Amino acid sequence: MKLPINIFNLLNNKVNNERIIFENSYFIVIEDLNHKEDNYHYCAWCKNDIRNLLEVTGKTISKIIDIKNNLILKNIIKDDGYIFIHFPPNVWRLHIHFVSKDHFFKAQEYEIFHLDEIVKNIKNNESYYINNVIIRNKL
Questions:
Q1: I need a surface site. Which of 12, 80, 111, 117 has the fewest CB within 10 A?
Q2: Domain map of the chain by residue range?
Q3: pLDDT one-digit tens code per residue, 103-130
């Protein structure tokens, strides 16, 4: 049985965790508690204090794409899987889910933001999420 991880201890190098799949200066990728060999589920936890999509930049996106490409290259994830962020998360720190194509989504559809859509929105307008939240709040 996999035990929960204290994310803040993990991010501060206070835990030696066998579920670490990949690490660089921006993210730590671990197996999610829901991970199974035939139905993978990994999470990339941001080392920086990014709490929501309003704080995600083009640089953040390029780092996430680097992780995706690295995990595909190492045959850890498949290119046809889903990569998403969900809000509200249970921990207010940016973390990205990498799941297999037959993943069952527990979160509500309006809480899920797929990486492809985030990339498109930020490439078209770096302030996309800032502008949309401000506009929604004014209405």
A1: 80
A2: 7-138
A3: 888 878 888 889 999 999 999 998 888 8
